[in-house]
Amino acid sequence: MLARPGRLGRRVRLPVVLLAACSSLAWAGLAAAAPLGAATVPPQAAATLYSGGPILTMAGPTPTYAEALVERGGQIRYVGSLAGALAAAGPGARRLDLAGHALLPGFIDAHGHLPDYVATWGRPDLSPPPVGQTRSIPELQATVRTYLAAHPAPAGQLQFFVGYDDSLLAERRHPTRADLDAVSATVPILLMHASGHLVVANSPALALVKITKATPNPAGGLIQRDAATGEPNGVLEETAGLQFMPLIPQPSLAEKLRRLDQVQKWWASYGITTAQDGLSNPGNLALLREAGRQGRLIVDVVAYPFFRVLGDLNSLDGRLKGVEIHTPGSSAPLGSMVSNAGREFAGTATAAPAPPLDGAGTAAKLKVGIYENQLKIGGIKLTGDGSPQGKTAFVSQPYASPPAGQKADYRAYPVMSQQEVDDWVAFGYRNNIQVITHTNGDAALDQLLNAVRKARSTYGSKDLRPVAIHAQLARHDQVDQMGALGIVPSFFTAHTFFWGDWHRQSFGEQRAAGISPTGYAYGKGVIFTNHNDAPVVPPDMLRLAQTAVLRTTRSGFVLGPAERVSTYVALKAMTDWAAYQYFEEKSKGTLEAGKRADLVILERDPLQVDPSSISTIKVLETIKEGRPIFRLGVDRLDRAAVNSASQVAPNPKLAHHGHGH
Description:
alpha/beta, globular, 5-stranded mixed beta sheet, 26 strands
């Protein structure tokens, strides 16, 4: 069991009172209230008193409501009775009537890739209806052909498109090199799978990176080939596609910042106040740092540099001479980590970098473990395997339905060797740095468990809260081990809806039913979080909660009823427990005095609706440290760009019943 004293059992119950209207301001007044500053508001500034609706504190193991909440200077100053709130607010306080709407802590994105949307914002998507129009490979070809005709590019420049999903195409297969050559035999074209773990390239694109019949599979990846000729068929798995990433055209910095503004507003429209860059590259970090310097980050962002580019941290700022490490959850620096900038990642995965050297460095400007301008480097990110929907998740037992061309004993493959995982986890424990690791398959999770066990035996049982990202095919015995080792599993229950039917065929009924075992983890007292992994699926937090509660697939099948959790537990996984994952439980995640006023106002109380209606609840307002950052009906979103960014259709009627593998 993951020990966290008091988090599962200690709280003072506040009075449960749902007030209809106890202030002179109606909801319209709340929507029109002037924004409050966060750090710049002096302590003597007027307070804001919220009342008149259910205030769900998310504190404690069972639902606890309050009559009123007082915010001042970006902090929660009081939570409790209305009489106590009036006294705490003092003279001149603004009284904001919730008018029956619900107030909760702002939602915390436990794993996602916020800045990744910047590159795809406004581009055509290849998703199925109703978001996109791609039902088949001919329709996919038509979308790409139309875009290329309307947007001619310089000769030889790579053109990329995102969001195709072989599990929902009529052909139930990946598009191939030949399919894209039929669109253009001269323009390099690259398609990215909805999972982000596979790409498809046409012949000119393969020529750009010199992939031929003679090219060997890279470590941790696979070049799919024609069974008859041995020629690459255009589908590249995992690390085999990484060398295309530097070739994707990038907009100007000004355009990136403009898009990032819109992306953040979109995320805030889902009630998110803390986001993640869960696979940071130097470009994304530079963009986030610049946005922070300009005061353009409206949500907190926690970034985890990818281990393969960790050495490039130095290149983000010419003045940077090292990386200052802070004890997780504190602001006290431990020392410095010498950058590994000399080892550039050149786009090939044949030789992964070793962890940076330990020891003394000079005073740093890029700090690990502490916020600067609403950006925090949380630690480092490892990638252990691929995706279950792409059939590249590394599992201990063979796939029930392996990919085309693979043998019956196919289990996929690891992206990192056990020794690499051991070395990087040891580096984290040695230097008190949090390590988060992508582990979809149970064999990849075994690698992480082994590495953490070894590191703890050498460096002690430090409270570093390593995170098993996705942990989708985690066995129950592995959940027990994660609890004992202090690992936080961050599940991805959205898969139960989006790809649940596909997983039933890929893994068989028994293993598919155990995808994202939240019910078992909760029963064992293991703290877990839940996430959307956006842009794999849109950052819709209430839909995410609904998938954890219902676990229904697109076809309406209940996938693993024993793994369901209550609505309250589903919300804990994106508030209180998500704050714990980030070492921020003292400042976020619940509505308690002394914490940041990160709030979300919902149309209805999620605990008081039918679980099948959770995803239909509207986010009315999102508030970051007392300052509104999204208001429904006031803030306008670029709907076309939003639709193109929502790569997976959220329509439950779009069931699929089979595939071509």
